[in-house]
Amino acid sequence: MNISIDEFKKCDIRIGEVLSAEKAENADKLLKLEVDFGEFKRQIVSGIAQWYKPEDLVGKKLPFIVNLEPRTFRGLESQGMLMAVDGGEQPILLEPQGDVKPGDKIV
Asked: I need a surface site. Which of 3, 46, 48, 80 has the fewest CB within 10 A?
């Protein structure tokens, strides 16, 4: 399915720095992340718990879509989405190269 460039431009994709990460209660696949985007912080819930340890994510700078409507997973509100590569057996996190800051936009 193709989308127009104008539709794509609506996506607000930014670098966020993971401040804290923990397994979500009663959900084996979910991690609850607190993410700094420079001007604001968000709670992001991601289904990567079976592949990534919470303590390994803290301090990482990763890409997130920040303008999605909030969604609730197992009672936890997610205010965005972590972007990753479909690596077949497990998702692969995208880590930017160079000097990037929380809140930097991906263009």
From this structure: 3
CA 71 to CA 5: how far, in whole Å?
Answer: 25
Q: CB 92: neighbour CB atoms within 10 A?
A: 12
C-alpha distances (whole Å) from 61 to each of 38, 49, 64, 83, 100 are 12, 17, 10, 11, 8
State the pairing for strand pair 31-36/13-23: antiparallel
Q: In whole angstroms, what is the distance from residue 40 CA to residue 32 CA?
A: 17
pTM exceeding the 0.70 threshold for the entire prediction:
yes
d(CA 73, CA 55): 21
Tens digits of residue pLDDT in 9-42:
999 999 999 999 999 988 889 999 999 999 999 9
